Amino acid sequence: MSPEVIQLGPIILLLLLLAIVFIVYATAKWKLHPFLSIISSTYLFALATNFVGSLSGVEEPIIADIGKEIAGGFGSIITSIGLVIIFGTMIGKILENSGAAVKMAEVVLRLLGDRHPALAMSIIGWIVSIPVFCDSGYVILSSLKKSLAKKTGVSVVTLAVALSTGLYATHTLVPPTPGPIAAATNVGIGPDGLFWVIVIGLFVSIPVALAGHIWARKVAAKLPVELDEAVESFEEFKARFGQLPSAFASFAPIVVPIVLLALGSFANFPVGVDAQGNNEVLITGFANTLLTFLGAPVNALFIGLLFAIFGLLPQRNEETLTKWMGEGLLDAAVIIMITGAGGSLGAVIKATPIADYVKTLIDGNVAFVGVGALIITFLIAAVLKTAQGSSTASLVITSTIMLPLLPSLGLDAMMGTVPIGQMLTVMAIGCGAMVVSHVNDSYFWVVTQFSKMSLSTAYRAQTMATLVQGLVGIVVVSILGIIFL
């Protein structure tokens, strides 16, 4: 970028902030679909940037070809993660409809018994929401929550918050849920790094889920209960799904892809440098080729889908192979479109001098580098989440904004071949995307309506719980940042 263009940084940064305000306002007030609000704001931002450049005497447009940048940004994101999102969503739909999610719950309950019902609900939610959207997971397990409350005598509000916060923790932090995958791709993490995002996401999500569990036991337990007592036992609840699949078949579509991703990363782990300066990896030859193929995210998720199809479908017929798969495609399409729109916005941002201008702002100011940058990232995601309600949109938009700024903010650090700076950025965004779930969030209404909480109870139980979760999460991420950045 030429110095005269970089000098326009403050005005263009202001235009970007106005574009974000437009996204929030159009989504929250006009009820415009997030895809259209992001695309519209991208065009407005690009046109306004070129207009400002023209007024300032810049001879060539700052963004040379707006249409090409928008289309290229959209296409590059879809190329990277489109199939991954589709396969992951289909797996979730099969787990949801086949009773596999209920089987997972049964396994956890069998391990914990009736002694720790709230902990059981937290763990069940934490596991189920890795592939299943938190909204769907809550609907599926809502009756289980009521049955368990009847059986153990624990407040149904306690179990409701334990379940909802367990689901929420992995929903925003752990791939293959679409939001974290999109955020990881948007900040430049390639297929080789996805396994490490899963690892760190699982690590951060544990204290986050635990924070929700403690809130459920210590605060939600004291709130009024308005939900009618369950009329069926857990056994009767299970009977609705007919013959449940086996535990192996239920967990395999989640566990197998994670194992394959791990093997792919393990095979390509660098152990030295040869005479030509090329990295030497742990496993070579055909074994490396095979494990690299199996460990590619799109291949690993497709194998997980095959496990789901052949291990979980009660019958492979038009109902399951067409209708269920079609439902999964519809769910995936919305996420892909929003993610692609975020890619368009990111491409346009990268074509402007914002990154160069921000670098001049923070040059020598350590408060905005490393851990400080993670906290700023968290705050951006939290503002977007609170204002417009969608965690996925918050993940997509914030990660899009952050990509060109990572080097300036010290968030491009590597730990060997592991992109630790980018991974922590994804975690900071995921924690921010939790803060807070309230009336503009569909998940808030799913939790409150299926638990029949009054609005005041819901604010104290669900909304405050998500605030606590996000704050605990960013504390954990900041500690990791102090250690690794």
Automatic annotation (TrEMBL):
InterPro entries per UniProt: Glcn_transporter
Name of the protein described by the UniProt record: Gluconate transporter
One MF annotation (Gene Ontology) recorded for this entry: gluconate transmembrane transporter activity
Keywords, comma-separated and alphabetical: Membrane, Transmembrane, Transmembrane helix
One Pfam family from the record: GntP_permease
Keyword Transmembrane helix: yes
TM annotation in the entry: 7-28, 34-58, 70-91, 118-141, 153-174, 194-216, 247-269, 289-313, 334-354, 366-384, 391-411, 423-446, 467-484
The keyword tRNA-binding is annotated on this UniProt entry: no
Species this chain originates from: Brevibacillus aydinogluensis
GO annotations of cellular component type: plasma membrane
